[in-house]
Amino acid sequence: MIIIGITGTLGAGKGTVVDYLVKEKGFVHFSVRAFIARELARRGMPVNRDTLTALANEMRAKNSPSYIIEELYKEAAALEKNCIIESIRTPGEIAALRNQPGFVLLAVDADPRVRFNRIRKRNSETDRVNFNTFISNEQREMHSDDPNKQNLSECIRQADHTILNNGGLDELHQKTESFLQSIKQK
Predict the structure, then answer these.
(1) What would you report as the CA-atom Rg of the chain, rounded to the nearest whole angstrom?
(2) Is residue 82 within 8 Å of 24, Cβ to Cβ?
(3) Three-class DSSP category at 91
(4) What are the tens digits of pLDDT across the range 81-96?
């Protein structure tokens, strides 16, 4: 069983890698965002970048820095299938998963302007922002000394593999295949 954790910057293509692994390789997808969004819906709160971040930070502070990931990992491990957990955002989440067999961390990144154009096309409820807000949101999530808050730069630094995704879909699929081959050889 392979458990791929995926981290990376906003609009880099994490979801596209997930879609490829699910559709083409049979991986089962577990989403931190969906986990938090379900809790927001249960509480009758709107789903947006601010509420998602605030609730995730609250859940981590109340339980542990790795709480959300540990809950998703339990679901993934019970299936005994190749899984992908999207999106790793704290070093504590990585530390918890490093103790699990078959875990590998993949980071996806791209140029900020490329990523901004992608999120504008995606147009989800968290993507309807201008470029300055996009950069501001990302900077807020890039660094933190609080173990319960997002620290994407450290997560990306700790990745076992990084895909730079400034090209098109075919190129991303090829890079994803190369990544899969490299972990299968280990």
Answers:
(1) 16
(2) no
(3) helix
(4) 999 999 898 899 999 9
